Amino acid sequence: MSSFSLGGDNLFLGIDIGDSSLKMVELKKKNRRIYLSNYAFSENVSEINFTKVEDVNYLARALNKIRLEAGITAKKVTASLPTFAVFSSIINIGNVDKKGLTEAVNAEAKKVIPLPLDEMTLDWKIIPDASGKISTKGNAQVFLTGSPKKLVRKYIDIFKAAKLELASLETETFSLVRSLVGDDKSTVMIVEIGANSTDLFIVKESIPVLNRSLAVCASTITRALAEKLGLTYAQAEQFKFDLSVTLAADTNEKLPQLLVKTLEPIVMEMEYMLDFFQSQNKGNVEKIILSGGGALLLNLTEYLSKRLNLRVIIGDPWNRVRYPEELRPVLSEVGPRLAVAIGLAMREID
Ligand SMILES: Nc1ncnc2c1ncn2[C@@H]1O[C@H](COP(=O)(O)OP(=O)(O)OP(=O)(O)O)[C@@H](O)[C@H]1O
Ligand SMILES: [Mg+2]
Questions:
Q1: Fold held by 85-149
Q2: 233-284 residue pLDDT tens
Q3: The CATH number of domain 11-84+151-182+316-347 is 3.30.420.40
Q4: pTM metric for this prediction
Q5: Nearest ligand 1 atom to alpha carbon 43
Q6: From CA 115, how far away is CA 135, in angstroms rounded?
């Protein structure tokens, strides 16, 4: 946890509520520039599992404890809905005018969303056509998301109980696009390797056009190491961190075979998505951006780059944020894990 703060007005707080971690980033806007004000994260919060625990007041207290211990004072919050809880799809709308659009989207949504629509909050964006124009006449492609109203209601209640102003709620995918891609118009693939899942998506013109989620993730590697070496989970987690340091020290060192094998389903999914995207004649993916704690597994970028014959980088979510130079080493280390929270904090600034 950090303990520096710029304080004052124009503060924006992004809160990434995960299954086993809670992360916050506070940004400050000053003279059209964005500054890092503060950040905090808490791991192993499985005992305060936000998606499962129903006691709203308890969750509000847990959230405020982490917030206040770090000295975070922003009252305006953007929070994320876990990707697995949100349904998203691209739908085709044929021959409609501006007036009939909502009706047409609802009719299509009924076909693709597996839950009753009155239990969902729908949100949608028209995808720009090849020339970058947004048409509301004729045929249009629409990016649709649906979130369970019950979960949205619960988050609203948590923030109300925490006496914070919930300015917006969004899917992690959008936060990641904001912090990792920004205004970059090139087509990229983002691979977020978290502790509980790996989320992969291809982003074109800032819109996630292809989405997949995998159970193979950063903790899968820890479990594989624990099993192979006869270690406890905590020991294997430490071993994994040390391994990254060792691999960093000796750049000739290859990613160990056990890790290569464990990560194979992720690589296969990436290959599949790249092929599928290309087969639809939607252009080429120019680079792959890794994020999430799993991205810190050193030499992973080199390994993937060779396997897929594409540029692979670890994303820098601090790209548009100014911060004291002496914090650079620690911030680049925590960056991949805070990418969602940074993107959330930026939402209301943009
Ligand atoms: N330096 C490192 N080297 C290797 N792995 C690391 C490193 N730092 C963190 N990790 C791994 O990253 C994972 C945590 O990543 P992250 O914080 O993105 O997950 P999360 O947001 O809590 O999970 P999720 O988004 O899936 O719910 C852990 O499994 C941890 O072992
Ligand atoms: Mg996460």
A1: Dna Ligase; domain 1 (3.30.1490)
A2: 999 999 999 888 877 776 667 788 999 999 999 999 999 999 999 998 778 8
A3: yes
A4: 0.91
A5: 22
A6: 29
